[in-house]
Amino acid sequence: MPETMYSIKMRASRAGAHISGAERIVPAGFVSQISEHLHARALGHPKGRPDSIVVTTTALAKDDIIYLPELAVSELPCASPHQARALVTDLLAEVTPHSEVIWNYLQTVTGLRGAMVIDSATGQRVEPDKQRGVRASTMDHRSSLSLAAATEPDSKNYVREARVLAAKVASCPHVLAEVCISDDPDYTTGYVCIRGRYHRIANMKLAGTNQGTRVIVVSRADQEALAEISAYLENQAVIVG
Fold first, then answer.
1. In terms of Cα–Cα distance, which of 142, 156, 229, 214 is closest to 181?
2. Of 177, 212, 219, 220, which sits 20 to 30 A from 45 (CA to CA)?
3. Helix or strand (DSSP H, E) at 228
4. How far is CA 210 from the centre of its chain?
């Protein structure tokens, strides 16, 4: 029988407000160590100490996991949020006439557990739950199959985790592009993922602000397509690399 893998997900909050989250997909022998690591990560988050940490562990059959290649990466020089705006809107203009509207969402919406979903044709938000967004979950990098890599310090994981997320979103049906600005106050680098390439952009926001969110731009926004997008992003197990 194929070896059972486990999806481990952590969510930390304070007074009901989301502070941080993380997840891994690992073999059974790593579960206890990874769970301990994720608790420690939640307790040391720069947004403060949570009053609730929930870690959920779920068995996965290896045959249920999709393996994806890593995305090609471009590093775009950027000195300020003003310059980031020009870079982001120029990239998004390849797939939607509403790139400025999307930049405005990035600057004004924060605190969602998931991503906004934007109809490329109208520029309107179409995710069913506007307070939550659509979560991309159940994913990891292939290197997490090594315990040493899976438990290394967060400073070494940040870029890799973003690229895993972007790879999963990019593989989702109907997705044209994704933009991310982290809501962590100490992390100001974001990205645009479009046409299979991950564009890493420094200084997308000023340091010290909790403003941050993710936007997914889709080619279809009918009920059937949105259900397919949500099911894939939230439930399909993916390992990248």
1. 214
2. 177
3. helix 223-235
4. 16
Q: Which residues pair with 81 in a beta bridge?
A: none
pLDDT, averaged in runs of 10, over the chain (241 residues): 80 84 88 91 82 93 90 95 96 97 94 92 94 92 74 64 94 97 89 96 92 95 95 95 89
Residues contacting residue 42 through CB under 8 Å, at least 6 positions apart? 10, 12, 19, 20, 22, 50, 53
Rounded CA-CA distance 170/175 in Å is: 6
Q: Directed axis angle between helix 81-92 and helix 99-108, to 10°?
A: 140
Task: Enter the pTM of the model.
Answer: 0.86
Nearest Cα to 105, choosing from 181, 18, 49, 207? 181
In the chain, DSSP finds a helix count (H) and a strand count (E) of 6, 12
Q: Which residues is 76 bridged to in the sheet?
A: 201
Provide the b/e sequence for 218-238 (b: ≥16 CB within 10 Å): bebbeeebbeebbebbeebbb
